[in-house]
Amino acid sequence: MIGIKMKTTAMMISLLVISGCSSNNSKPDEEMDHSTINKDMEEIDQNTTENGHRSHDEMVSLNDSTGENELEIPAMLERDNEKGIVYTVRAQKGKTEIFDGTETKTYGYNGAFLGPVLRLEKGDMVKIRTINELEENTTFHWHGLEVSADADGGPHNTLKPGEEKVIEFKVAQEASTLWFHPHPEGITAEQVYNGLAGLIYIEDDNSKNLGLPNDYGKNDIPLIFQDRNFDDKKQLNYNAAMNDDGTIGDTLLINGTLNPKLTVNKEKVRLRLLNGSNARNYTFKLNTGDSFVQISTDGGFLNEPVTLKEITLTPSERAEIVVDFSQLNTANDLALINEDESILLPFEVSDQSGEINKIPGEMNNFSITEEEKDLPVTKKVELFGMKDQVTINGKKFDPERIDFTQQQGVTEVWEIYNKPDMMGGMIHPFHIHGTQFKILSRDGEEPPENERGWKDSISIQPGERVKIAIQFKHKGVYMFHCHILEHEDNGMMGQLKVE
């Protein structure tokens, strides 16, 4: 269906290194001795050629989507007929026909692969029954959701096989696109790789009144991007594919669909982008060079739409964009592509005109106050290392150690520094559980316009220092970590206690 030339050469890019978070008790930067780690990394770098990583410089390219399969749209999860708003979410094993005629062993929520969408509304009192039907421990982490620590689904909230737990919370945050996935200590990467991931939509009065495209599956499309490797039996063999520095695949699945295409009408279409990969970054753009509009960050709407020609998302980041297919030249092949021009998602534009939606000039009242700008840095986080030598503030995760404390309802400023290694370093996507935060600055400069909104994950370049203003609404112990999942599993994670 697509006449775009298929690409066979691997793209050369600079790998990213996640720099860690520092604790109140950690040594300052100038006192920290990384000489042993640097030596180890130099030896690893000289000797390593595996699974798409070589000399910290080369990453395997994605195969182009041929566009032969219509994109699967996740189902909306039906609510249970019980008192309160009740959902049941089951972690399950299954088999999925990703390739025609072959069943691949997969994990999923309420099904064989991936999960349904949970739709919540601001002000709702919600109950979710979580059930572990796997043969191993798991957790249910609600990524981006502001909930108490005992409901957050971090590694302390483990469910053994056959166990279940009901969590309850009030939805107190604004309209946004969040997601859920497992977070058990040491095996998060493999469980996500096998298929445990789903989306959460929060709606509020503002989102309903903006007039944005909101016909689910028609002009409001969820897109979960995940790269995978399949073995010669077309199985997800994580042990064979796994790389300590982040598992990268050559095959892209979107919503679990191989070689997808999306059929749209000539109208504005809202695309909710989630980088659900273990380690790969994506720079999304249209192959025609046309622009689109970003309307939302991880945790809510931007104040006004931002016109872009490309947007980069690191693992776990989300963004909502609107593409106006009524204004694009559809005579030639049209597709969403990656930075190296890999074809991610071909579009087939019908002759039918769709709804007439206007993107409002004002969508939110997000602000950074003068008081927040004047706050001193109270917590420093240093991300450092690669492979199994990753640390935050020179330390690996210890479930018995609290790295930071913070008072409930009090805003503090954290500084996150990605310390380069002798090969330059990697980008680290840094995530904090249980809250949304504001980016105050990147290397002392204001963040770009499309990052001036609520965030729960942030991309940090080697050598970069980022300041954020952060407040927690609930008490308990929360995680902060690199969202390259193999780095997280290797101990690039810390704990914050909110008192």
Strand order of the largest sheet: 14-13-12-16-21-18-19
Largest sheet report: 7 strands, mixed
User: Percent of residues in beta strands?
Assistant: 35-45%
Q: Give the CATH level 1 class of the largest domain.
A: Mainly Beta
CATH topology name of the largest domain: Immunoglobulin-like
CATH H-level homologous superfamily name of the largest domain: Cupredoxins -  blue copper proteins
Based on Cα principal axes, name the global outline.
globular
Query: What is the count of DSSP helices, taking H or I runs of 4+ residues?
Result: 7
Rg estimate, integer Å: 22 Å
Number of domains: 3
Please identify, by name, the CATH architecture of the largest domain: Sandwich
Intertermini distance: 57 Å
| Helix amount | under 10%
Number of strand segments: 33
Low-confidence stretches: 1-57
Average pLDDT over all residues = 89
- Class from secondary-structure proportions: mainly beta
Pfam family, one: Cu-oxidase_3
InterPro entries: Cu-oxidase-like_N, Cu-oxidase_2nd, Cu-oxidase_C, Cu-oxidase_fam, Cu_oxidase_CS, Cu_oxidase_Cu_BS, Cupredoxin
Family: Belongs to the multicopper oxidase family.
Protein name: FtsP/CotA-like multicopper oxidase with cupredoxin domain
Description:
This protein is mainly beta. It folds into three domains: 29-60 and 366-498, Immunoglobulin-like; 69-209, Cupredoxins -  blue copper proteins (Immunoglobulin-like, Sandwich), CATH 2.60.40.420; 220-353, Immunoglobulin-like (Sandwich). Helix content is 8%, strand content 38%. It has helices at residues 35-47, 149-152, 188-193, 205-209, 238-241, 370-374, 485-489, and strands spanning 49-50, 53-54, 69-70, 85-99, 102-109, 118-121, 125-132, 141-143, 164-170, 176-181, 198-203, 220-228, 251-254, 257-258, 260-266, 268-275, 282-286, 292-297, 300-308, 311-313, 318-324, 334-337, 343-353, 377-384, 391-392, 404-406, 412-418, 428-432, 437-442, 457-460, 465-470, 476-482, 493-498. Residues 1-57 have low confidence and may be disordered. Residues 92-206, 237-327, 375-498 form the Plastocyanin-like domain. It comes from Rossellomorea pakistanensis.
